[in-house]
Amino acid sequence: MWRAQRRHGREGPPPLTEAATPQPALAVEHLSKAFDGRIVVNDVSFSLEPGEIVGLVGLNGAGKTTTINMILGVLAPSSGSVTIAGLDLADHREAALGVVNFSAVYAPLPGNLTVAQNLRIFGMIYDVPNLTDRIGEMIDMFDLARYRDTRCGLLSSGEQTRVSLAKALLNKPRLLLLDEPTASIDPSTADTIRGHIRDYAAREKGAVLWTSHNMYEVAAVCTRMMLLSRGRILIEGDPRTLPTEHGAASLEDLFIGLSREPDERASS
Ligand SMILES: Nc1ncnc2c1ncn2[C@@H]1O[C@H](COP(=O)(O)OP(=O)(O)OP(=O)(O)O)[C@@H](O)[C@H]1O
Ligand SMILES: [Mg+2]
Question: Which residues, judged by CB distance below 6 Å to any ligand atom, belong to the binding site of ligand 1?
Answer without folding.
Answer: 35, 40, 58, 60-66
